[in-house]
Amino acid sequence: MAETTLTDIRDGERKPDAAVVRDALGVGVAVGLSGFAFGVTSAGSGLTLWQTCALSLLVFTGASQFALVGALAAGGGAFAAAAGAFFLGVRNAFYGLRLSQVLALPRAVRPFAAQWVIDETTAVTLAQPDRRAARIGFVATGLSLYILWNLTTLAGALGAEAIGDTDAWGLDAAGPAVFLALLAPMLRTTTERAVAGVAVVLGLGLLPVLPAGVPVLVAALAAPAVLWAQGRRAQKEGQR
Fold first, then answer.
1. What pTM did the predictor assign?
2. Cβ atoms of 89 and 61 closer than 8 Å
3. Dihedral angle sign, alpha carbons of residues 13, 19, 25, 31
4. Per-residue pLDDT reduced to its tens digit, 99-116
């Protein structure tokens, strides 16, 4: 495989392994603690301790997990909840296409590595200057985040069971709050902000009239709608 998929390295520019691990662990710990909020939210939505832990162990993509339990908590059907989680998780497939070039892992390892292809591991991996650093960053981020996310999920679910009614404590808002905190820094361009704004309008506007979980699916139309509008505007400007 050609090395053009990575940044060319000049003498003296290689990043120390310790620095890569330090940065990766910083991301893993910071985001991994959010698993507590998921555990609380999932238990509050009616899922059992084992169901909650299974989601983190097997699904392991925070936004999709929050979308699933949020729809269930709102009274949505299993199909609508799963569909919303699926559409949020599709982005990981595109991450995988890019990371497969950067990491160039052996075929036997790829099915296991796929479990860790998420926002955080992708960001850390692509920020590295060479393949060695990218592999270290991917493994360190994925391992620390996976372990901590699952441990804090367990702690959150156990805590929610001990507390009882999570709504009375306002803990039902923990999941959406964490999701927004993770999403906000990603909205860097005007297009991204426009998509987010349209999605919010669609989701909240349709919430009173559609079954729980369905507004999330409709909000997914925000991206093609914004891109279509921008294309039309660019076309009109080009004709002037």
1. 0.70
2. yes
3. negative
4. 999 999 999 999 999 999
